[in-house]
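Slide 14.
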Amino acid sequence: MKFLLTVIFGMILGSAATFYYIYQNHADASEQALMRDTLTTYLPFMEEYINP
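Slide 15: predicted structure.
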C-alpha cells in the first residue's frame, strides 16, 4: 500500500512539474494567461471534491 501511495504521489508531482516546465519554458504570454485562467476557473469546482 505504501508503494502504491508513493507511485501515485510521484505521478501527481511529476505531472505538476511537467506543467510548470511547459508553462515557464515553452508558453508565450497569451498561452500562460490561458493556462492560469483555466486553472483558476476550475478551482471552485475542484474544491467541492477536495473539501466534501
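Speaker note: Residues 1-50 form one domain.
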